[in-house]
Amino acid sequence: MDDYQVQLDVFEGPMDLLVYLIRKHEIDIYDIPISMLAEQYLEYVARIEKLDLERAGDFVLMASTLLQIKSRLLLPRGDEGDEDWEDPRRELVEKIVEYMQFKEIAGHMRRLEDDSTRRAERGWSEVEYFRRSEELEPEIDATVNELILAFGRLMLRKPPPAPVHRVAREKVSSAKRARAIRALLNEKERVLFADLLPEDSSRMFIVVTLVALLEMAKRSEIMVDQAGSFGQLWIARRKLKPVGEPLDNDCDPRDGGSDADWGGADDGEAVDDKEYQ
Amino acid sequence: MSGYDNMTVVEAMLFASSEPVAALRLAELAGMEQEEVHTAVAGLNEHYQSSARAFRIMKISGGYQYRTVPELAEYVRGLGRQSGSHKLSPAALETLAIVAYRQPISRAEVEKIRGVNPVGVLKSLLEKKLVTIRGRAQVLGRPLLYGTTPDFLRYFGLSDLESLPRESELEVLLSEQEAHGSALSAAESEGTQQELV
Amino acid sequence: MSGYDNMTVVEAMLFASSEPVAALRLAELAGMEQEEVHTAVAGLNEHYQSSARAFRIMKISGGYQYRTVPELAEYVRGLGRQSGSHKLSPAALETLAIVAYRQPISRAEVEKIRGVNPVGVLKSLLEKKLVTIRGRAQVLGRPLLYGTTPDFLRYFGLSDLESLPRESELEVLLSEQEAHGSALSAAESEGTQQELV
User: Fold this and answer.
1) Does the pLDDT of residue A8 top 50, yes or no?
2) Per-residue pLDDT tens for C101-146?
3) Considering chain A, what percentage of its residues have pLDDT values greater than 70?
4) Closest to B94 (Cβ–Cβ): which among A14, A61, A103?
5) Beta strands across the sheet bearing A190-192
6) I need a surface site. Which of A2, A82, A139, C34 has the fewest CB within 10 A?
7) From CA C186, how far away is CA C193, in angstroms rounded?
8) Residue A187: pLDDT band by 50, 70, 90 thresholds?
9) Do C51 and B51 touch (CB under 8 A)?
10) Whole-number Cα distances in Å, C129 to C102, C109, C137, C195
11) pTM of the full predicted structure?
């Protein structure tokens, strides 16, 4: 072939290859010589197949469409003036016309892109600078993209380390743990058992927490409540205040719990068994 | 309040922003009518034109934004945040064209037109914030629908979607084709065009 | 080379720069002498002064940079401070995403996912009418439950909540994005190969 040098990977897909062939052979798209086009097309696809079997998949479907049209054209047509007869090429032609339109638009958009990228935006935003100097959070015009990406990032991310106030080299004792739990319950009234055990808790920390809870339960300081037989364990203060806090309360930053000082949380190596024993 | 005229106030606000700012927002902050903002912008551009300044105020993505004149492109390349060298691939451009004209559109419909699975390209366009998810089609499987974003307009320097070429401008291509001699009636080929709003 | 004089070239470069630019760098990029850069800057400032422009070129940390005149600072600050009704902080966006996908959801559950107390953010989302109270959970303490509003749908241009990609669809979108990772170059990341994914 004269244009053997044509790079096969320049074709965006089967439609692109068709349009290339139509232009190359100056084919009138409203009267396509299907046999010739199919032949040409198959020749290219064979070459693509040799190079990249996976990519060829997209092109094979179109090849079978072309062959199907070709065979339908060969069928006897009945009367010449048959009004019900529909040109089997029609659907393909419509697709080609539509695709050519979009190629045209893409070309126009390329020119827009060229022009737009030649016009530089202001590189430094004084407005943003002021925002930051006034310690305002950056803000964005959020689209669904940002929303779903934000959610996706959160889901991909490992659960954040539980809010733990780390105190280096602090010893863990059940008494200390009990004090921490008491402080927490003073603020929150009830707390999830799981929340008392950050993900990175050492075994010793878990054991000490359990012992502290058992002791507190024995002294009737706390109650343990379970939502359903396999539900979460809640640890609650013995004397519950009436529930039903007003909205403002719910939004009170102090009721957060995340800032609460958890006291005894610690790294494994800092745990002093002896103190516990 | 500062004794500065409308033009200078609008100039300060727009010059200090790197993004397009809506006339409504400018008007609110400056205590003007939107009409006055438009007038101020026109006055500023006239001044920049006559004094051969390096920038103009353009209508971009529903707002106003300063941009340098294209003739100075070689000097500003690589200085700002947009490097200007990363152009979209042909596949990305074709897909964007289809999304822009047929939005909201599903992945399958894009694939039907291009004959290639556009998943990779769509994802990359989502990442670049040039397209976004617009909802779901009311058809079997309720596929996600895609549309263009304000950043799409900003990237191509368009004030709105209507500034893309109209149907009538696209017909040029078709009439060239039809000149070859048409087996299909004009009415039929128009059918495909009319979807290109 | 472009028929523009030194002043206009320097103006364009300083306009487009994301940081202060040293005279030496400007001179190199524009093919001028440093002295010519200084002269151009002085000439520009004179012009801005006499035509009462809203900006001047200042010497900032060893380079030149545009700043709006201090007398107009209130407008520039206003633009930064005014929380455009269309703008969200990253924290608000994250919280909103969790509420949208997991509603109805309690404050504590949001906190568990984000690892940050969401009280302040929830308050501002309530004020922006993007989330609302949906009732109380039937668990100990009966915490308030939050959900999204019709305004939320309008803000993001969605017809209903089901229009958001499902978590399973999201996984597909995101795994691809991970794979593309740093592929910033359009030409690279959108090659035809990747369309086959």
Assistant:
1) yes
2) 999 999 999 999 988 888 999 999 999 899 999 999 988 889 999 9
3) 69
4) A103
5) A190-192, A233-237, A222-226
6) A2
7) 13
8) confident
9) yes
10) 18, 20, 21, 40
11) 0.71
Instruction: Work out the pLDDT band at B181, boundaries 50, 70, 90.
Output: very low
User: Could you tell me the two tokens for A184?
Assistant: 């927490």
Asked if the Cβ–Cβ distance from A12 to B164 is below 8 Å, we say no
Give the nearest partner residue to B170 out of A104, A110, A122, using CB atoms.
A104
Tokens of C54: 């809203």
In SS3 terms, B79-94 reads as: CCCCCCCCCCCHHHHH
Please check whether residue A27 is in contact with residue A21, taking contact to mean a CB–CB distance below 8 angstroms.
yes
Interface test with C, best of B26, B65, B69, B123 (most C CBs within 10 A): B123
CB A73 within 8 A of CB A88: yes
Percent of chain A with pLDDT over 90: 21
pLDDT tens across A228-243, in order? 555 567 788 776 444 4
Q: Which residue has the higher pLDDT, B168 or B153?
A: B153
Q: Which two tokens stand for residue A272?
A: 């002093």
Chain A residue closest to B15 (CA)?
A122
Predicted confidence at residue C85, as pLDDT, reads 56
Report the candidate in C88, C95, C154 with the shortest Cα–Cα distance to residue C122. Answer: C95
Mutation target among A10, A126, A252, A254 for the C interface, most CBs of C within 10 A? A126
Contact present, B153 and B62 (Cβ < 8 Å): yes
Terminal alpha carbon distance of chain C: 46
pLDDT of residue C182: 33
Residues B90 and B96: their CA atoms lie apart, in Å, by 10
Q: How far apart (Å, rounded) are the C-alpha atoms in residues B22 and B30? A: 12
Confidence of residue A1 (pLDDT cuts 50, 70, 90): very low
Neighbour-count burial of A140, counting CB atoms closer than 10 A to its CB (0-12 exposed, 13-18 middle, 19+ buried) = middle
Between B86 and C75, the higher pLDDT residue:
C75
SS3 for B162? Answer: helix
Tokens of residue A108, six digits? 């126009």
